Amino acid sequence: GVCPNRANVAIRVPGKRQRQILHMDGMCNECGNCGVFCPYDSRPYKDKFTLFWNRADFENSTNAGYLPLEGSRVLVRLGSVVREYDAADPACGLYEDLRQLILTVAKDYPYLLRH
């Protein structure tokens, strides 16, 4: 709640007790408030899984995160590995928790995908 731009969004993923924080790259100005006030010794603007709105921002970042492509396809960065996945396919090879987060955003929070 300390982000002046509301760039860190709490996502309720089915089957999870706690909400997952999704960082919205396109809404962040990297002011650092979330890092200063985070109760978990974290910098959400750098440490949280990030949703990107365009390829240029995805490519110019080192954050773990994803860029929605067409349909259920997504481009995902985990560490230094960038790979395309079909999030609708349970056998796509993406970690199930991340796959569920991506699917939940598309289904229950589609307004986050618009910019």
Find the count of extended strands (DSSP E, 2+ residues). Answer: 6
Tally of alpha and pi helices? 4
Tell the overall outline.
globular
Unreliably modeled segments: none
Distance between the termini: 21 Å
Oligomeric category: single chain
Strand content: 15-25%
Task: Look at the structure and give the mean pLDDT.
Answer: 89
Please specify the SSE layout and strand pairing:
Blueprint: E1 8-11, E2 20-24, H1 33-37, H2 44-47, E3 50-51, H3 55-59, E4 65-68, E5 73-78, E6 81-86, H4 96-108
Structure description:
- The protein has a six-stranded mixed sheet with strand order 1-2-3-4-5-6.
- The chain starts with 7 loop residues before the first strand and ends in a 7-residue tail after the last helix.
- The chain has 115 residues and is of the alpha/beta class.
- The chain is globular.
- Helix 3 links the parallel strand 3 and strand 4.
- The model has no long low-confidence stretch (mean pLDDT 89).
- The protein contains four helices and six strands; from the N terminus they run E-E-H-H-E-H-E-E-E-H.
Which labels suit this protein?
115 residues; alpha/beta; 6-stranded mixed sheet
Gist?
This protein is α/β, with parallel strands linked by helices and 115 residues long.
